[in-house]
Specification:
- The complex is a heterodimer of chains A (326) and B (311).
- Chain A contains 12 helices and 4 strands; from the N terminus they run αβαβαββααααααααα.
- With 326 residues, chain A is of the alpha/beta class.
- Chain B has 2 domains: 213 residues, P-loop containing nucleotide triphosphate hydrolases (Rossmann fold); 68 residues, Alpha-Beta Plaits (2-Layer Sandwich), CATH 3.30.70.
- The model of chain B has no long low-confidence stretch (mean pLDDT 89).
- Classes of the chains: A alpha/beta (326), B alpha/beta (311).
């Protein structure tokens, strides 16, 4: 039935690939942008410009220079005041702070400053630390969540609205088997979906799985079961698809934002961390990242596994108790 | 277990109240004998579907007693489900499964059941066995829904408005399926608001109105209870004739006035009709329209309630 719904097939297989492709390209590792500097038009501006080699420098009148700074086209403005130099920049913009330091360093050296300690740079790009490496486990986690929730929650409510559940329980069908069939269906789809996504990430971005693949597969299956339980819970009472859609978003949106799909969940204040740590998607994403990027095994992710198992158990127990069959 | 083995369904003083307010079923008693086709007849909202769903074990009655095939829902649910075939009023089966796949799915729920090929042939869907449900016509969908009800080889078949919204040919096909099922000595309970369907298919009918049985019997005996099997309907160009004069005409058993026309229940039409015409001529009146027909269950319902079955 699933493969007869072209849109479902796209959301399962196509969407995660398109998403990771788009984000992977947007945040690909590119050489750092040159520092952009504006110099206020004045006598001696040309000399300052010549000193700032390797930067993108423009000489502008005062008003234009400030406008460029305000709109972010330049990171810092240099104003000449006799022999002194004044830097105009916004302290809250990281690239402005970097630019101010770099420009100052360059101008001081050009004026004859000598380094007190000889230093040199050695640049490294650590595999497994790129954004796409961070992103991919998040995409897998997100997909396990949303396909599990929609694939089960929405379908069940649709069946209820169409009185198909009522029709089925008018037969000797075993209710547990009926609900189990959804979980089995989700897992069998993921068995095909995850390899497709991993192979794509490997060939397109060189993303490796550093930990044991068996643990990764186990996590995905456990995640699928946990979110199947949540999907079941969300759909257990809802009588129409609008209601369940709203409930679904209510449950999933906080996790999309807080559980570290696109950016680290540590960006949220410490006060929120205990709650965020308890969310099932946080546990799944963190565990997937540990296995894929840090090469963690089952032992290292055992606490996350336990948390996911707890979510699974409790949502199934509650869902079964309150499920509306008629 | 059973008080009477010949009864397929028995319910007594059945009541179903929703939210403590709307009373859908209001003290309903039924006894359906094994091997008969029993019809629940009544207008929309009479409580037919609620009654059937209680008997099917899909709704819990507010109060009252239900016994199906000598068993109770509370104690023998699984055993009962194995022996019942159910077709709901509206069934949306999975859109993108084929007819055969849907039957196989439903067959898998039952411990025993019928051969799918035979079943597809019975409901005349062999050609459509590999067609998606969403591509079937209304009549084909309904026949498939009935086939799903038959797949477990049931002893008792519930059909809730099986032919509502179907074209005449599809209705005839469905009637054929029900009659074949009944020929094996099995029991059918169907609800309908089509009089001809009830007269054609049912051995006995219960006319239900406002959650109560208001008449019970074979279609023929219910029609006979009107006092006459024929109806003369006439409307006068001008003037009127009082009921007393009409009832005084030989063989006229009842008078009913509906929207400006007069309907007379008559038992011997060849005697009654000339006498009625004589009466009209004698009064110096003229008929605008006059027709005669056999009485139907519709007349029984109108006679009992003063309302039409389908408003």
């Amino acid at each position: 039935m699933f493969i007869r719904e072209p849109s479902a097939v796209f959301w399962t297989f196509g969407f995660p690939i398109v998403l990771s492709l788009a984000l992977g390209i947007a945040f690909r590792n590119k050489p750092p942008d040159p520092i952009r500097v504006a110099i206020e038009q004045a006598d001696g501006a040309e000399a300052v410009r010549d000193a700032l080699t390797g930067m993108k420098v423009v000489v502008l009148d005062a008003a234009r220079a400030r406008q460029e700074l305000r709109t972010g086209k330049v990171a810092v403005v240099v104003v000449l005041e006799g022999q002194g130099r004044v830097y105009l920049y916004d302290e809250t913009r990281p690239e402005s702070r970097v630019a101010r330091l770099a420009v100052d360093d360059r101008l001081q050296r050009a004026a004859g400053r000598v380094d007190a300690v000889p230093t040199s740079d050695r640049k490294i790009t650590e595999p497994g630390a790129r954004y796409v490496d961070f992103l991919l486990p998040g995409i897998i986690g997100m997909n396990v969540m949303s396909s599990g929730m929609w694939g089960i929650g929405y379908v069940i409510v649709e069946m209820r609205t169409k009185k198909l559940i009522k029709r089925m329980i008018a037969t000797p069908m075993r209710r547990g088997e009926f609900l189990l069939s959804f979980v089995v269906m989700r897992i069998s789809v993921l068995i095909f979906e995850i390899p497709v996504l991993l192979l794509f990430a490997y060939f397109a971005f060189g993303v490796h799985v550093r930990g044991p693949v068996t643990v990764l597969v186990g996590l995905v299956v456990l995640g699928a079961v946990a979110f199947a339980g949540l999907g079941l819970l969300v759909s257990s009472r809802a009588e129409n698809t609008q209601t369940v859609g709203g409930l679904m978003n209510l449950v999933m949106l906080p996790m999309f934002m807080c559980s570290g799909v696109f950016f680290s969940s540590h960006n949220f204040p410490d006060a929120m961390q205990p709650v965020i740590r308890l969310l099932p998607l946080t546990a799944l994403n963190d565990a997937l990242r540990s296995v894929m990027n840090e090469g963690a095994g089952l032992v290292e992710v055992s606490s996350k596994v336990a948390l996911l198992a707890l979510w699974t158990l409790s949502s199934f127990v509650v869902a079964l108790r309150v499920f509306r069959w008629r | 277990m059973s008080q009477d083995a010949a009864l397929a369904v028995r319910c007594a003083t059945l009541v179903k109240r929703y939210e403590g307010k709307v009373t859908a079923v209001d003290g309903l008693d039924l006894e359906i004998r094994t091997g008969e086709c029993f019809g629940l007849l009544g207008p929309n909202g009479a409580g037919k579907t609620t009654t059937v769903e209680i008997l099917e074990g899909l709704l819990d009655p507010t109060s009252g007693e239900v016994e199906v095939l000598g068993m109770h829902w509370a104690t023998h649910e699984r055993a009962l489900r194995e022996r019942l075939g159910v077709s709901l009023q509206v069934t949306h089966l999975p859109e993108r499964l084929t007819a055969r796949e849907i039957l196989r799915l439903f067959r898998s729920f039952f411990a025993r059941g019928r051969d799918l090929g035979d079943l597809l042939r019975l409901v005349a869907l062999e050609d459509k066995a590999d067609t998606w449900f969403e591509k079937l016509s209304g009549g084909q969908k309904q026949r498939l829904a009935v086939a799903c009800a038959l797949v477990g080889d049931p002893d008792l078949l519930f059909l809730d408005e099986p032919t509502t919204g179907l074209d005449p040919q599809s209705r005839l096909q469905l009637w054929g399926i029900v009659q074949r099922f009944k020929e094996d000595g099995r029991t059918v309970l169907l609800t309908t608001h089509y009089m001809d369907e009830a007269e054609r298919l049912c051995d006995r009918v219960a006319i239900v109105d406002r959650g109560k049985v208001i008449a019970l019997g074979t279609p023929a005996s219910l029609i006979l209870s009107l006092g006459g099997q024929d109806v003369v309907e006439l409307s006068l160009q001008a003037g009127d004739i009082e009921d007393g004069a009409l009832l005084a005409v030989p063989e006229v058993k009842g008078v009913r006035r509906v929207a400006g026309s007069i309907a007379l229940a008559v038992s011997q039409i060849h005697v009654a009709l000339p006498a009625v015409l004589d009466l009209i001529r004698g009064r110096g009146l003229a008929c605008e329209r006059l027709s005669t027909r056999h009485a139907t269950l519709e007349d029984v319902f109108v006679n009992l309630t003063g309302r039409q079955l389908r408003d």
